[in-house]
Amino acid sequence: MDLREVQQEVDRWIAPRGYWDPLANLARLTEEVGELAREVNHRWGPKKKKPTEETGDVALELGDILFVVAVMANQMNIDLEDAFRRVLAKYQTRDADRWTRPGNGG
User: Fold this and answer.
1) DSSP-assigned letters across all residues of the chain
2) In angstroms, rounded to a whole number, what is the distance separating the alpha carbons of residues 24 and 27?
3) How far is CA 105 from CA 21, 82, 96, 100, in A?
């Protein structure tokens, strides 16, 4: 599924229910990023889960973030594929010589 299809699927699900306002969706996005941060911290960071806590799904948390990003793009009439191409070109130009692979002096 490409990003345009993602946006279309999200719209098919959201449109009949109604889009929340952009600020509410930004709050949703922040909440989802927090959930991802919590899972990453539990798996790879210093804060381990309690024995009574369930293991979360990092892929699902990333999917939640993608969903809310698509919601926000839809309500602002932003084509995510175009936006991603523009951002990738920016990184390729601006950061072409900025990063090196680990073990290669970086």
Assistant:
1) --HHHHHHHHHHHHTTT-PPPHHHHHHHHHHHHHHHHHHHHHHHSS-PPPTTSPP--HHHHHHHHHHHHHHHHHHTT--HHHHHHHHHHHHHHHTTTT---TTTT-
2) 5
3) 46, 34, 16, 7
> What is the pLDDT, as a whole number, of residue 95?
75
Structure tokens at 14: 């959201």
Low-confidence ranges of the chain (pLDDT < 50): none
Predicted local distance difference test score (pLDDT) of residue 69 = 98
Q: Rounded to two decimals, what is the model's pTM? A: 0.84
Q: Report the interhelical angle of 22-44 vs 58-75 (nearest 10°).
A: 160
Q: How far apart are CA 31 and CA 67, in angstroms?
A: 13
Angle of the 58-75 helix axis to the 80-94 helix axis, nearest 10:
110
pLDDT in the model for residue 102:
72
State the amino acid at position 106 in one-letter form: G
Cα gap 92→24, rounded to integer Å: 33
